[in-house]
Amino acid sequence: MKLKSCIVAALLLNLTLAGPLAAEMDWQVLREIDVDAEVRDMAISIDGRWIYILTATNEIRIYSSGGKLKGAMPIDPGYHRIQPGPREDILLVANKNQQRVQLVSVNPVIDFDLSKAPIKGPTDAPVTITVFSDFECAYCARLPKVLDQVAEAYAGDVRIAFKHYPLRSHKFAIPAARAAVAAQAQGKFWEFHDRLFEHFNELDEARITQIVKDLKLDATRFKADRNAPRAQQLVEADRREGYAAGVSGTPAMFINGKQQHRRSVDAIADAIERELEAHHQTKPAPQS
Fold first, then answer.
1. Do residues 215 and 85 share a domain?
2. Same domain for 193 and 140?
3. Whose CB among 34, 37, 108, 221 lies 3.0–4.6 Å from 55's, allowing a Cys bridge?
4. How does pLDDT run across 80-118, given as a tens digit for each residue?
5. Helix (H, G, I), strand (E, B), or coil: what is residue 255?
6. How would you classify the pairing of strands 127-133 and 158-164?
7. 117: left (phi over 0), alpha (psi -120 to 50) or beta
């Protein structure tokens, strides 16, 4: 018998003689979801944002990871199984009667609170682009130019709303976000926003002070507004709202509440066109 086989045999013998191992497990019910219908199958999206529940009433109910109902999608009778698809917004649904599998695009519409958000564009625009962003994020720093190009092409039909989502891995992201809130109080959010992103990889207190001077802000008021509890509360409220919507990284973009994963001009324009078509409006596509 080889040495490895002898060792394995000895271990098995010891386990047998020792009897069953005592195992402890700490468990608890974290949350309950009241579906109020017979459950046929369940699935969780690849990114963990959504819980899909297939009911005997021929619908797929979509819940947030926190257990809040976000919507329901009716389906034909006979569908009995669901499974996450190759992307976070794709769901596979199997029909045993028709021997068919459908790939279903699932993109819940999120209703964001924009009452305190800085907004660029007409208040009555039919399309709202909501962006969750971090001032030290390199990818976030590239997005404003893309969105400005889109907004110019769809002038009058698009508005852009900004939401703070400072990542904990970026040490100066929260101080920068609070500074932007203070600039917003003096009507200079977007100018401050642009300057922060111009220097996203070298932000510090000296840079903030220089931007305040360059934009001719009231330095005393700026300091008071930045250090006020309201600034931190607003930033945290945005971050909680983003987390509830499934934001896990930045930038995260939603067009009329639907998450938009592709960030090119053409991809955003296509999404805007679909929204405008839903509002029975048309606009020429922007040139990339």
1. no
2. yes
3. 37
4. 899 988 877 788 999 888 888 988 888 778 899 999 999
5. strand
6. parallel
7. beta
